[in-house]
Structure formats: C-alpha cells, structure tokens
Specification:
- The chain has helices at about 15-20, 20-25, 35-40, and strands spanning about 10, 30.
- By secondary structure, the chain is an alpha+beta fold.
- It has one domain (about 1-50).
- Strands 1-2 form a two-stranded parallel sheet.
- The longest helix has 8 residues, at about 35-40.
- The radius of gyration is 11 Å and the shape is globular.
Length: about 50
C-alpha cells in the first residue's frame, strides 16, 4: 500500500519507541510532534534520513 507518506509523526513517547523499527524499515523519518512544531516555526530542519 503506497500513500506517498514523507514521514511518521508521533504524539506519545510509547508510540515513538514502538514505531521506530517499522518506520525505519519503511525508510521514513520518525518525527515527534514537538519537533514538527519546531520545524513549522523554522527552528529545526526537516530530517534528511530515517532515524
């Protein structure tokens, strides 16, 4: 299933941990919601690779 996602955004620390491996396997960057807010404000860059 291809939905052309560019990243996975997580909102809770447990989801962040649990979804880490599947997200990396899919080649997507995993972004915590607070980091996404920082990106929107120009305080942080968009991740270049999956972490």
């Amino acid at each position: 299933m291809d939905h052309q996602a560019e990243a996975l955004v997580t909102i809770c620390p447990m989801c962040n941990v649990v979804l880490g491996a599947p997200t990396a396997k899919a080649g997507l960057p995993k972004i915590f919601i607070t980091d996404l807010c920082r990106m929107a404000l120009g305080e942080a860059p968009w991740p270049a690779t999956a972490n």
